[in-house]
Amino acid sequence: MTTPSEPAGVRYIVDDVAAAVRFYTTYLGFTLRAHPAPAFADVVRGPLRLLLSGPESSGARATPEGSDAPGRNRIHLTVHDLDAEIDRLRAAGLSFRGEVVAGPGGRQILLADPAGNFVELFEPAGR
């Protein structure tokens, strides 16, 4: 096992790795770390390492049959101005799943990547 100080990774199964790389690097500030094959890419944003695995990757092949729909899990990105981020991403042609939800901790909205995996944009309360 890795040491606790090493970054943990999150794996998203995607149907088009190149489209997923464009989405995360163009719109959400990720940097391409590695793209050794068409079936796999590794992007990072701060301490988050996101592994993008296409259908032919070993990560996708290890996923049980019938698990092809995205789950309710999502990565969570904190933003300073949720309304400005929504405007920026809508102007780029992206769409959201649902509307802004507000609670005692802040406001959030869900964005879907090209494969349907969720990204939560969250603005903490008091900003």
From TrEMBL:
Q: Which domain of life is it from?
A: Bacteria
| PROSITE patterns listed in its UniProt record | VOC (PS51819)
Residues in VOC domain copies: 6-124
Chain intervals for the UniProt region annotation (Disordered):
54-73
Coiled-coil region(s):
none
Quote the Pfam families the UniProt record gives.
Glyoxalase (PF00903)
Spell out the SUPFAM superfamilies in the cross-references: Glyoxalase/Bleomycin resistance protein/Dihydroxybiphenyl dioxygenase (SSF54593)
Family annotation (InterPro entries): Anthracycline_SecMetBiosynth, Glyas_Bleomycin-R_OHBP_Dase, Glyas_Fos-R_dOase_dom, VOC_core
Name the chain's protein: VOC family protein
Q: Which organism is it from?
A: Nonomuraea mesophila
